[in-house]
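Notes continue from the previous slide.

Worked example: a multi-chain complex. Inputs as given:
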Amino acid sequence: MPRQPAEAVLDLGRRKRIGLDEAVFCAGKSPAQIASILSKHEAVRSPALLTRLDPDKFARLPASLGKRIDYEPLSRTGILGAGPRKARGRPLVAVVTAGTSDLGVAREAARALGFHGIGVTEIADVGVAGLWRLMKRIDAIRRHRVVIVAAGMDAALPSVLGGLVACPVIAVPTSVGYGVAAGGTTALNAALASCAPGVVVVNIDNGYGAACAALRILNTKASGG
Amino acid sequence: MPRQPAEAVLDLGRRKRIGLDEAVFCAGKSPAQIASILSKHEAVRSPALLTRLDPDKFARLPASLGKRIDYEPLSRTGILGAGPRKARGRPLVAVVTAGTSDLGVAREAARALGFHGIGVTEIADVGVAGLWRLMKRIDAIRRHRVVIVAAGMDAALPSVLGGLVACPVIAVPTSVGYGVAAGGTTALNAALASCAPGVVVVNIDNGYGAACAALRILNTKASGG
Amino acid sequence: MPRQPAEAVLDLGRRKRIGLDEAVFCAGKSPAQIASILSKHEAVRSPALLTRLDPDKFARLPASLGKRIDYEPLSRTGILGAGPRKARGRPLVAVVTAGTSDLGVAREAARALGFHGIGVTEIADVGVAGLWRLMKRIDAIRRHRVVIVAAGMDAALPSVLGGLVACPVIAVPTSVGYGVAAGGTTALNAALASCAPGVVVVNIDNGYGAACAALRILNTKASGG
Amino acid sequence: MPRQPAEAVLDLGRRKRIGLDEAVFCAGKSPAQIASILSKHEAVRSPALLTRLDPDKFARLPASLGKRIDYEPLSRTGILGAGPRKARGRPLVAVVTAGTSDLGVAREAARALGFHGIGVTEIADVGVAGLWRLMKRIDAIRRHRVVIVAAGMDAALPSVLGGLVACPVIAVPTSVGYGVAAGGTTALNAALASCAPGVVVVNIDNGYGAACAALRILNTKASGG
Amino acid sequence: MPRQPAEAVLDLGRRKRIGLDEAVFCAGKSPAQIASILSKHEAVRSPALLTRLDPDKFARLPASLGKRIDYEPLSRTGILGAGPRKARGRPLVAVVTAGTSDLGVAREAARALGFHGIGVTEIADVGVAGLWRLMKRIDAIRRHRVVIVAAGMDAALPSVLGGLVACPVIAVPTSVGYGVAAGGTTALNAALASCAPGVVVVNIDNGYGAACAALRILNTKASGG
Amino acid sequence: MPRQPAEAVLDLGRRKRIGLDEAVFCAGKSPAQIASILSKHEAVRSPALLTRLDPDKFARLPASLGKRIDYEPLSRTGILGAGPRKARGRPLVAVVTAGTSDLGVAREAARALGFHGIGVTEIADVGVAGLWRLMKRIDAIRRHRVVIVAAGMDAALPSVLGGLVACPVIAVPTSVGYGVAAGGTTALNAALASCAPGVVVVNIDNGYGAACAALRILNTKASGG
Amino acid sequence: MPRQPAEAVLDLGRRKRIGLDEAVFCAGKSPAQIASILSKHEAVRSPALLTRLDPDKFARLPASLGKRIDYEPLSRTGILGAGPRKARGRPLVAVVTAGTSDLGVAREAARALGFHGIGVTEIADVGVAGLWRLMKRIDAIRRHRVVIVAAGMDAALPSVLGGLVACPVIAVPTSVGYGVAAGGTTALNAALASCAPGVVVVNIDNGYGAACAALRILNTKASGG
Amino acid sequence: MPRQPAEAVLDLGRRKRIGLDEAVFCAGKSPAQIASILSKHEAVRSPALLTRLDPDKFARLPASLGKRIDYEPLSRTGILGAGPRKARGRPLVAVVTAGTSDLGVAREAARALGFHGIGVTEIADVGVAGLWRLMKRIDAIRRHRVVIVAAGMDAALPSVLGGLVACPVIAVPTSVGYGVAAGGTTALNAALASCAPGVVVVNIDNGYGAACAALRILNTKASGG
């Protein structure tokens, strides 16, 4: 009925413009819409990162397409075309989690970094209720250029980490928890109100966004003045 | 106009019933209302603890009454009659604050405990952004039977403390902060969502309530089986 | 892809440090993740308490593992290894509920206390709309050293109880109700704003946390000065 | 500049239509606007009830007008013309408060009822933290045809009262309290989620609205079939 | 494990005390719990009203029990024992709805009134977007002693009705709507902030509570002085 | 049980009164209720627009009825009777979306406009993260008399568009997004707080409402002075 | 200290681009900042509309500047340069208010329209609690091309009006009210959730925005196809 | 009364540990508390940055102390000791504002950066309602290594900027606005939900925090691998 049928418009110049490839956010898109977008990527040989791709939805993609996607269920991410680029040199980013339930979000960040060629160290389950676990790993964490912290519930970990490391700390509040955790809102607000100065924050469960922020930081170094 | 003029009804049996004296919450009461309530206390020789008594309002009480009150402005508390009872023995409660702005709330708790005869140690400014400050004092904190923690903003301190001490930890979120701190709401929710098990929480800025909770805990020991 | 595969880190020194065993919070963990954590517990002969383990998820654990777990569906809790330790002496904690819908949360508290060797009396359905039900049981409640109250909706019960008993009152707001009950938020706020002094509060539906708070209180007695 | 200058339009037929006189809500109106509205009332000899009239604003009304107003500062109400009508017969409405800080709101209800010729009994300071205070007065309360309950903080009183009396219970949540009390929101929600059936609620601090609801109830009786 | 198994405690004296029978709120209760409560009712020949009984859950009750229940799916209510008592005389309560989606809530109120012997007139789909529909029925509405209004979304209907009828108006906000309707919160707040004086409000979707409020009003007439 | 069975009341004079046909909002209505309403429409030969008709519910309508409905699944709309009227002349409304996930809401607006005989141009996927996409289409957008913008997440598009076009801009915030997107609340608030003057807003996901607003605007021209 | 001192950048091409002059939003700006901005306007002979200019702040502007401003205190607006342009022909916009407290917001809209040369009719105090007041004026309202409605509290007026007039209805929720009115949030949400189709909404108290929306609508007519 | 008087504990090792000097947050501290903290700084010759120091409070500091402070009122910041260190080389950070009301927050960031020796370019009033203003400055912005964006209301600017520059973008939502702007909450949420990838966010009005984040980023470059 509309005069001009609407369809997705790829932003293929994004990497040139801001150093980041466009990702395909799959929540709220049908398998048909996803397949249509991916076919455009393949037509111009542009690799694609897929986020929020539930296992069920992945299974409903055309089988031939699914086979070309490197899919990882914990993070619900897929990579189409060329696979993850080879990470160069030593890991530059530490991806730290407070609890095992935060791993999916952390892995999304790790996968997005890998897709852009950046190596990552995952350091899990160092929540502050057992402070010794964090202290045991703090020197390893300090060896990286950027720290991403995924934490839910009260999100005390970004504050403690922010007081212990000098590099950028990117907090990813997660929706882990119940009651006042309120789908990650308390973790978000606690990270924003952090008593440790200079902690920055992205949206709840937004591992991809944290990775993009890390890439901007690493890019600024490469191209800086 | 109403047939029966309304007035305050003292709950003088409260100490017998639940081990706590009634306090006079002064916010929202006029100096005249406060004076009227205190005259009833004096008539039956019942000492009174006044909370939320702003310096301005204290100054507007009848001068003769004001002189009989032991007033402390930081905590906005007053004590009428017999003064604070003598604290017995060594301090049983540690009142810990994350920052200097939390001191008023902590002092309200300390004053309420003193009013009931319990000694207190105040340990200030040990917020987690400089973890060494807390670690330096942790053994001193552990020497108490109950820990009260006043913390605003992200309130990470109760979680860290809860993982380090075995005794009851009562968190008092404070309204310190701005933006997402939201008048103490984030501190409250972070304390309630604490990853450290068994941390309990009272209302925002409710130093008096935390003291009462500590008194219940100490009483249960005295009278327990 | 990450250099170092992430996995759970048990906090086996927790009982020594703060008197509480670590629990496994099963919401948001896959059966595989749960099984992996439990195998570590069994490797070091450390008993484990499982919370928020839905019947469906319990059924998806490896059958041989499931058999070794003492599972209770109302509370969605499981106990692995040695079963609940024998409760010593008379019940020290009263677990009180306002309505029958609050029983699951109350039972979680009771199971966690039993796991730590503490006896419990469950007193159900004494909500204040029929005050006589509470009054009939109030002397029985007073015989305990700590009272845990699970209540949803308007959570008036903690306030009324707080005015009737001298011992610590731990309110567990429950998500029972609809509309303004808002998943337990009103019960939570009502308990925090309680007009009865010294009532302490834990997160919504957090029966486990209430039990841990009670254990801290009972521990402080045992080890106190 | 607008073609047609805007001004207040009295609803003088309201009593005939719904049994209630229009009140003048003074918050947000300037003294000049109030005086202009009152002059219209006097022009048609219609008595007027003024609500939310702060002492400061009352003092800024023209002196000659102020003298004709029966002003009561605790409730911030004024009555112009003929004064409160004579209450007929025995008091039909009990206006109950949980604490002394709730008295202003309760008095607004009492004044509005008196303005419409209904007698009131004020019963103050019977909050549930000292249940004996309520129990001592419960028979007196039961002697009325409608109960209005003003309560802030956790507003447990309407629930307890609703389980003890058979007549209509109108809860007026008040903005008394701090922190989670949130300007009366918790009291409001607790009253709405009351476990006692059939408690009805009006807006926070809306003593006038509670009085109007009571008048509707009493009117329905007079004119009912 | 708990010493004393917990179970429901019927409040059989409720009708004598406050004129209302206890209802069984079925949400959050298992079919087994419901059946157990109903067997207690049958043991003492006390009829029971069941609310929030979804068709699925009703179907999972023991078949023999289900046959004895008068079930109505739109309102999700059931009546056990003697069926609805015969309504006496002409309908006393008008149950008015803004839209057809509000009918379930309105019917719950109607069923609860019928259970207590009160006749009802249902007047549907008179929302204010087509004001003529309301005006056509307003005289019929005025013939009742109490008006219950179920309205979702912006809930403008209670305000308009409150300005047109003299009798008590009980607003039941419904969860009908989306976006800012927020599960009935906007309807609730609009009803509470109504510009028509004396409108009273119950919890969202609480048709049962509105009926109980109407019963209290009708009772006060019967027993009044 | 109620004396007068309740049923839907069509507002067939709406087009005459306000220039809009009544739509049938299908969420919360059963297939039987929908069929009953449609039969009334067919009885008087009044075409009907159905909104929020999920594919599942559409499939559960009587087959013979379903066949007479022009159903479009992306927008979840159906049209009964005469089909969409023929759009007259060139498209008057541009329906613009920020991302492909907003297409369903935009299509609802387009379908509602088509139902009323207005032609539409759909312009998709011009979110501001790739500003060039919008700039490429801005002249095409400017050729219309009204612009409807559907945008979720941060809804920056209405602000940018509002600064670029002179005609009315109607923002439809969508529930696309996660975390702080909060079901469209952030998009809604961002649109309302737009720094571009004169942007107007409708409820979240309310494509139908945006279409009605556009129709009012186009009607005012036709009939204006 | 910054290399390049920051200052306001006028958007003088705005009228050409979108048909609206830029306004100076004075809240949060110091008198010095306002004077500096106005001097730029005068330098290029561009008239300026000032909004949210409190009488106190107006009085603190340089006296010589103040004299050149046409200031109106109820709306807190000022006009600099050439004064309001002469309104052309008959009033095109009706600005309707629910209560007298809404007049300030309505007047802001009227002043902004006058500044752009559009005549306005103000119709005050027609809230729905006395429906006859609205009905008496409805024909006068219908004579305009756009209706702006300012309403606080429950904002039922836009819904009722939206069902009675065919032209665009722009609702301006106002912050009038208390308690659940919540600074205009309930009025805002009620207007957005309006049961009358096609009502559009601007931010709370945003009379200026409503005027701009009306100007866009009137402009689209003038230049339309 | 407490055994151990509480006082501030400086964190002098912070620069060594995390590259940032401790700042003195003056809101909620009395002039006496501030003076006491500053005397400790002077005792160890540690320069101090003061934030949230209102002009009134600054004026109430001891006069001799005030003279040693470099105070800037728009940002409410003061610098004690050695003044701002000399900024090295070309400006590394662009501090961009959407409107002039955002300047105070932006200046706080600029002052904090200057205090740490980093040069800044302030670029003001480039909000997206007049996109040409931003486009004119975009090349200047791109010349920096980090961009800080202060924006209130709908905060569309960070999203647009994030799509135009490759370097890190730190959004500081400001409390500028009214109604749904809600003290900066909408700006905060819009920035967090930004459709431009990798935008990071700090607390509302937290210019200091944004500066610290920029310092962490610049530090990571200096010390990186």
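Summary box: Strands of chain D lie at 23-25, 48-51, 69-72, 77-80, 93-97, 120-123, 146-151, 169-173, 200-201. The domain at 93-222 of chain D is CATH 3.40.50.1970 (Rossmann fold).
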